[in-house]
Design a protein that fits this description.
8-stranded mixed beta sheet; about 300 residues
Length: about 300
């Protein structure tokens, strides 16, 4: 049976997410907005770009699918526009090329999408459905969704690399495409300890280990949209953008990832090597991309 979650706001349904077509490492997701199309906006953010609004047929039922790679296609995100009267569908692929295949074995959570929920849109009351696991965002108006494995992996990541995890979950979402904050300053929610008050949603796969969606709640007082906005990004280089930055340490500078790895004395040598190899490869690939793009 497919695993499903419903994301709600104070008891009103925002969208549904359904896990599909999993194998031992990879999976795909179907995202179903649950508002009238006149209140729906879909955007795609390419590397070093502002979000681009995607035009779709708003007379049709809308679903979005984040597809894993196949023998014929690279990973892709497309809009499915369903004509219920004719019982047929047309598709539009988002213009995003540099996206990561959803990988449930990832060591570092992968940013999937951002959802902006203004207070003035009309939403339907959510009717409890035992097939869905409900996640209510309460008074927040932005959610940022990351793919991970299971809760043990999330807590291990946060324990192994506390500074990186703090940056990953607290940076503005658009930083993952550019290393720059192109939009607004976000007022994120912190708990009484000073740590980010993160809520989580988990759902499992029937053919592999658990798949997790790590949902970061955000409140932004400057939201003035009049539509529910789903923002998908080119996330291929989210990791080097996050970790390969300088931080001040005792009047000196040090790379963020080296600081975390060198300061956690409880990291095993195997884990240390695994992280260093992952980080080094991601940084090399990103610098190669930058050299080719801006030469």
């Amino acid at each position: 049976m497919k695993k499903k979650i419903a994301i709600t706001k104070n008891g009103y349904i925002i969208l549904k997410i359904i896990e599909m077509n999993s194998n031992h490492d990879k999976c795909s997701f179907k995202i179903i907005p649950m508002v009238d199309n006149k209140y729906l906006k879909i955007t795609a953010t390419k590397m070093f770009s502002f979000p681009e609004e995607i035009i779709f047929d708003n007379t049709k039922q809308i679903e979005l699918t984040y597809h894993k790679q196949s023998k014929l296609y690279e990973p892709k995100i497309h809009i499915k526009m369903i004509d219920k009267i004719k019982n047929e569908a047309t598709y539009k692929t988002l213009p995003l090329k540099r996206i990561i295949e959803p990988n449930v074995k990832t060591l570092i959570p992968i940013p999937l999408l951002q959802v902006i929920i203004p207070n003035n849109i009309v939403m339907k009351k959510y009717s409890t459905n035992k097939e869905y696991k409900e996640f209510d965002i309460g008074g927040n108006n932005i959610i940022e969704i990351f793919l991970t494995n299971n809760m043990n992996c999330i807590y291990k990541f946060m324990y192994d690399l506390p500074t990186i995890s703090n940056v990953l979950f607290n940076d503005s979402f658009e930083l993952f495409t550019s290393g720059q904050c192109l939009a607004r300053n976000l007022s994120k929610i912190f708990d009484e300890t000073g740590y980010h008050a993160i809520k989580t949603v988990m759902f499992g796969s029937d053919v592999t280990s658990d798949i997790g969606l790590w949902v970061v709640n955000v409140y932004d007082k400057n939201i003035n949209n009049n539509k529910l906005e789903l923002n998908f990004i080119e996330n291929e280089f989210y990791l080097p953008v996050t970790i390969d930055r300088w931080i001040p340490i005792n009047n000196k500078k040090m790379k963020l990832y080296l600081f975390d790895i060198s300061n956690n004395v409880l990291l095993s040598e195997e884990a240390r090597r695994k992280y260093l190899d992952l980080f080094a490869n991601s940084i090399i690939n990103y610098k190669t991309y930058l050299n080719n793009r801006f030469k």
